[in-house]
Every structure is written in structure tokens, then in C-alpha cells.
Fold these 4 entries.
Entry 1:
Amino acid sequence: MPGSELPTRFAPNAEVYDEAYYARMYRPHWFLRNARKYRERDEALLRLVRPRPSIRVLEIGSARGDTAFFLAPHVGLVVGIDAAPAAVEQARELAFQRGVPNVRFELADARDLSPFGEASFEAVVLADFVEHVTDEVLLPALRESLRLLVPGGALAIYTPNRDHWAERIKATVPGLQQADHIAVRSASRVVELVARGGFQLDELFFSASPYPVLGALDRLLPSLSVCRFRTCLRATRPERE
């Protein structure tokens, strides 16, 4: 499996991803990280992955394992990979504490997943990963994902949409954007990169923001790009290439 050592500078902002970063991840907040946000995220992931008890899932950028643990009861195996040692350490500790038998975590760079064989997985998940990496990381990761999927296998992406009003505000006002979000992309850009990676688009939909009161605007005008909070994309490896 992937080795235990990776270059320290796996990202231009690698220093952000320390133990404290993962310890505070998904900490509840009545406005920014409320229950609705995570409920709708989980619903979107199930729609994108379409889990079955027999499938094998690879999660790229698994962080401390929250998505992997969520998917585990629905699938046969989840392998989470992350380039940050602190992430893998915390994920492994949580897996041990929870006694989840069909989840494991490996230290690996998303650009090179050569230790995994071709057609090793039925699904590859990039949940809240795309916005953390530049194209120089994302494109190789997508090509590796294509190689690792069985023909007809699915790529599931869940990521912020740069066109949404909240992201536009964060991009304009100094200090609002998270230090770890170095590459928030528009939905059209994500679709373009996925196609360049060799995938066939299967489904594209958008979630509304979960913010109290303000989220009602997104649900009222879902056809407007400024009201599309999260890009939710499912693409497949063509049966014949």
C-alpha cells in the first residue's frame, strides 16, 4: 500500500493541515455548520455514490475519516487516502475507537496512487477535496481515479461553487475565505476538468445553502448560478475507451 512518508510540501499551504486543523473539523455552529448542512451533504453523497453492499470505495482527501465512516455501513469497503500525516493518524485512531472493520486509511499523494491496481474500485469520492487543491494536483488525481475505477465505475464530487453568492462574498472580502480553500471553482470549471480527466458526465445537481433565512433564496431561485451552493457531480469511467 502507499508508503508512510510523503514530501512535507504536499500543498502550497501544507502548514494549515496540522493536528489542530483536524481536531476542530466539522465543529457544529448554528449558522456556518448547522445540522441541515451535514444532513443535505450526506444526502447528496448517497445520491452521487449510489452505494451497494458489495462495492469498494476510494475516498481521496479523506481527512479524519468522516465521509468514509458515513459510507462504511452502505458499502463493502472504504479506503481513505490523504497526504497529511495528521489526518491519517486521527482517522486511524477513530477507526480503532469505533471498531469499523471495512474502513482503512493510507498516507498517499492523490497525484500518484500507483500502489493501487487498475480497476480496484467501483467508486471514487472527492468530498470537499477539490477546493483544497490546484489544477496541478486535481488533474493527475482525476486521471488516477479513472485508472482505479472499473469500467462504468463512478466518480463523485462534492465541492463549493465559486458562482454562489456566499463564495463571491468570501472572495471579495479579505479574511473571509478559509485558508485551506485555495481553489474554489465554478461548476463549469469542475465539469471541464472532469472531462479532461477522461470521464463521462452522468449527473450534475446543486444544493442550496443551509444558512438560516438566507438559504431560502437559493431554494426559491435554484436555476440561478448565484443560488447554487454546492456543485454535486457524478461522472463515470466509460465502458469502452
Entry 2:
Amino acid sequence: MHPVLFRLGSLTVHTYGTLLACGILLGLWLAQKRARAAGLSPDDVWNLGVFMVLAALAGAKLWFLLAFWSYYRANPMEIFSMSTLQAGGVWYGGMLTALAVAVIYTRRKKMKLLPLTDVYAAPLALGHGIGRLGCFSAGCCYGRPTTYAWGVIFHDEYAHQLVGTPLGIALHPTQLYEAGAEFLIFLILLRLSARSHRSGQIFGAYLVLYGITRFTIEFFRGDPGRTLLLGDAGSIMQLVSIGLVGFGIWLWTRHGSSGTSTDIAAGTTGATVSPVPAAPAK
């Protein structure tokens, strides 16, 4: 739709990268703001967030390379080409890598992991939603052809050259489907965070909601970089989605090891849940 934000001489500023950066920074800022109410150090939340972002970018790129390994094995120098470097990567690869880094970081710092994941959940959904708007601008992660009235038609030749976006064909706006779902998930998580809950439940809710969202949207995706299964009847992303939904349900229904509950809205931790409704998150 609009892959280039502006050009300044030989410098090209892409819309996708700009929106992705905005989503990351806004997510980190929001997580840091919510840290103190959850009884966590804002500095720890910010530092871990930065490490997870860097790990996510690397993991997303690595999964992307593995998805097209047959091509890159035959053309190894293409790994360092501009088209590869500018490709966004695979979201689940980044997410799983970031989670691994969070586990390692919290163990080394002797911090509790689940309260941290709860703080990051809503900002993650918000940042991801903004990033998907960047995908729409770039023309990547596009949908299958459709005859529905809300189908979108891309015309930008640069987008076609950069990420292979089909031109002149009405496509499902899967980027907008996912962005809208992420913004809705963000609002739901804010509402849940304002109520008394056990540690891990908010992140569990995110995994369930996003897992269902991604599993469904995969049926409408048309881009080839998704590790297709069974002759395009499904994708590995759907298998990962099922796993995350199951894990999210377990996080939501599990009992804390010591029977404690965390009220993020009130910023307290205790053995019981306050019956007084918490104030809406700001």
C-alpha cells in the first residue's frame, strides 16, 4: 500500500520498519509503566524487554531462513541480501526465542517469571498490532485471493519486488484482520489485569486469544513463507498455535505453587483475592 515512508538521498525509510519500531518502543514504555503496580522493578522490566526484543528479531529472522532453507542453501550469499535483511521474519520464531531468553534471564537474576509475563502481555499485543499495520503498508504477510467486498488490491511495484506481493488482485487483508484482533486482545488483557488474578493468568489469556486468532487467520494467508503442511491444507504456525492455546489454558487454570494470587491493579500480592473491584487500568 505504502512501503516507503520517505527517501532522503540514498537513504530509504520503510513504513514497516518505522511502525515496527514504534510498536516496540510503545510496548516497552507501557510495560515499564505497569511494572511498579505489579510490584516489579521498572528497570528490570525495561532491561529484560530490550533483551527479548533483540532475541525476537534474531529468532524471527532465523525461522525465516529455515522456512526457505532449500533456497538459501543453494544461494548462501542471498542471506546477506537487502531483501533478506529487510524481511520481517516469522513472528512465532521471535516469540519463542524471546520466551527462552526471558526464562534464562529470570533464572540468572532469581526473578519470578510469571508476574513479568503478565506485565508484558498487553503491551505485546499492542506492539504486535502496530507492527501488523506495518505489514499492511509493506504488502507482506498478504492474504489469499478473495471476492469479498473488503478485499484489498496492491499496486506498488516496489512492494512486489521486495516481498512478492501479488498486484492487481483482490486479497484478504490478513494484516488488518490480525491488527484488529491484537488491538481487541490488548483491551481485553487490560480489563483482565484490572481484576484480581493469579500470576500467569494474563499471559495465559494472551496465549489463548492470540493462538486462536493466528490459527484462524492462517486459513486466509496467501504468502509462501509459513512452512506449509499437507499440501497447503495447514501450516506449522497452526500447530504452534494449538500448543500455545493449550499452554495458555494451563496457565489460566493452574493453581499457584503456594496458593498466592496477584492483584496487578492494586499492586499487591497475598494469599487471598480482594473482593473489592479494582480500578480500571490507566
Entry 3:
Amino acid sequence: MALPDRSTTDRTDPPRRRLSRAEQRELTRERLLDAAADVFNRLGYHGASLDAVAEAAGYTKGAVYSNFATKGDLFLALLQRYAVSRARVQGEAIMALPFDKLGEYASRALADQARAQEGWDLLQIEFWLAAMRDPVLRETLAGGSAEVWDELGEQIDRKFAEAGRPIPFTGMEFAKLINALGTGLLINLYIDPDFIEPELFERATRVLLGLPAERGSAD
């Protein structure tokens, strides 16, 4: 007869640490944001509601309203979580790349976003339109990304200093220019996938960096 498996017969799971009230609140908030991402994706910004998010998350309406006063507040929190994560990934990529590869990275990122994030980008556009008609929401949206821009701008400034090149923009100015240019191109690409070749974005980025437009040209 085989001996019993001690890993199952003698194992005692360690007692779970009870979450503090602050930790429980943060866990609830993150679960609500996860549910909100699905609800907004299915129903759009205007079609979604806090009640629908509560149902999807398995919480009461009170749990939602105790964390987010309005649907706009909820979407802003979701947008902020996305922006922080994306800025971290972009900042790490920028710092790891050679200076003359930044344009290539921008072009590849544009193509990847157009291919994989259309639903999220259209949600953002829908939200922007709502915010443009709501002065309070518009002001909150404008101020909510300041910290993200500061951090990304500092990383790009370090990259510029590392390259030792005279760039006519601060890191934040460059980041905002590239973001605005990329956003405009993405909107057109969603309407017409043949609007431009993503390589054009690379050439534009290289020119802004003071590099020859064509990759492989003498810098």
C-alpha cells in the first residue's frame, strides 16, 4: 500500500491576514475598476451606468457610490490607471533604446495601438466629447494627467541629456507633441486604415528629434 502524501495530509495552510479597512477599500476599488473596464467596453461611455458596474462587480450600488460619485469620476479613475501603466511602459522603453531608435519605436507603437486598442481609444474619444460639454469634468480631466506628463517628461529629458544632442523641446513638450500627432493619426486610421503608412510617423518623430528623416541616413 502506498504511503499517504504528506504534502496533502500534514499541510496546514497559514492563516490569512485580515485586511485593514484601507486595504479592503482599495481592493474593492480595483475590482470596481476591472468591472468598469468590461462594462464601458460593452456599452460605451454613454450606455454604461454605475448600476451596471455594480452588478458586473458583484457589489451593491452603495459600494460603487462610496468610491465614485459619478460615472465621470469612475471613468476618470479608469483612464488614470491606464495612463499611469502606459506611461511606465513607454518610459522604460524610451530609456532602454538608443536615441536614433526612438522614431522606430514611435512608429511601431502607433501600429500596435491601431491594431489592438481601437475599442479603448474610441471610448476615450467618447469621454472627451462628454467632457468638452461639461466644464467640471473637463477641468478634472485636464488636471488629472499632470503627474503622468511630469514623470514622462523627466524621463525624456534624461534621454536627451544622455544623447548629448541639442533638442529644441523639453521632454514634456516632446511627449505632448508626439502624443497629439499620434492621436490625430490614430483617429484618421480608425476611419481609413489606409490613411497613412505608420512609417510616416517614424519620419516625423526623427525630424522632431533633429535626426535625418530617413532611417540609415548619416546623423
Entry 4:
Amino acid sequence: MTNSTDFIQSLQALFLQAGSFKPLGGIRLIDAEDFLGMIIRLGLHLFFVFILVRLIYYPRTKRKDFLFTYFLFSISIFLMCFLLESVKLEMGFALGLFAVFGIIRYRTDAIPIKEMTYLFVVIGMSVMNALINKKISLVELMFANVVIIGATYGLERVWLLRHESQKLIIYDNIELIRLGRHDELKRDLEERTGIRITRFEIGKIDFLRDIVLIKIHFFDDEQPDQMDESFSNNSFGT
């Protein structure tokens, strides 16, 4: 009888140990309510980001590389903040994201200030939409997104009606850089590039190789439709 009791107790202890065995740290397979909430908020977030990046930013700049970057940044930061929300993140975490990207700035390539501004806006929207809590209503969240979208659209399309782009060119006919021949220089640049130039700046002159750096300025809406998308903001190199 004693042996039977000991066997039952041993079996019960074994089952208790098996029930406490949690190889994934107690992570549940699924929480339907939280999962549905994440999908809804992610969909709402991507809707506003799509308007900002695809409908406002891209038609003006035609930069597919930044289009790719903004969407991936947006999704990654949103999911990271949403999944870490239970860790009770403080405001310093959100501000830290801005500081990190402000320091790094993709050191392998110089990013124009306008593209950096869009990047910070995308990061801000991602953090805001992911870390919203019960104290903030859905209407307030949508209003905040609409304000950002509206301000961006107003600055991009209404108040700044025309966007002037610039391009750095290595030019070989240095005879035309002399004073009094700038009209000829402009015509030659337009014939070679196919761009309607509004103004230009003469930069570094290399008499040894007979070349000069010229920065041309032009309005995107005045250019032929077939103009290469690679034309974008650039600055003089050193």
C-alpha cells in the first residue's frame, strides 16, 4: 500500500513538473484580442504612411530608394514599439530613436535635408501610432495623423507651389564660363542635358584637365516627362 501511495505521489510530482515546463518563457500561442488590435492599428498606420510617402513625397521627387526606406522604417519601428509596449517604455525611448538616426544619418551617403525631414516624420508617426494607450482615443490619434499629413501636403503642394531641384555637372567647355558668355553656357547646358535650366552656379575650376563643376537649378514641373528619375538634389563635392 505504501508503495502504491509513493508511486501516485511521484506521478503527481512528474505531472506538476511537466506543467511548469515552459521552453518559450510562458509565451502564449496567440492572444486573439491583442493580435486583432495590432492588425487594425498597423493597417491604420500604413494607410497614413502611404498617403504621406507615396501620394505626397514620391510624385515630387521620384526617389524609389527613399520610398523603399521609408516604408520599411515605418513598419519596423511600428512593430518594434508595439511589441515592446508592455515593457513600459518611457518617452526617452521614442526621443532616443530620433537621436540615433540624427547621429548616424547613413554615414555612407549624404542625405538631403528634405529627405531627412520625411524620415523623422515617418519615425514619429510610427512611434506615435504604436505607443498609443487607452488614455488616447482613436479619434485623437487619427486627428494627429491628419494634422501631419495636412501640414506636409500644404507645405509641399500649396504654400511651396514649385519645387526647385538641382544637379551637379562636370562640364568640359570652360571657355563659356567667362563673363559675357553665360547665355551661351546656359544654352549649351540645356542642349546637352535636355533640362530647362532656371539658373546655374559655377563651382571649382580645373584648368589642368579643362573641366569645371557647375550646379544647375531647374523646376521639376517644367521638365519633359521622360526626364531620368535619377535627377535629384545634390551639392558640390570637395
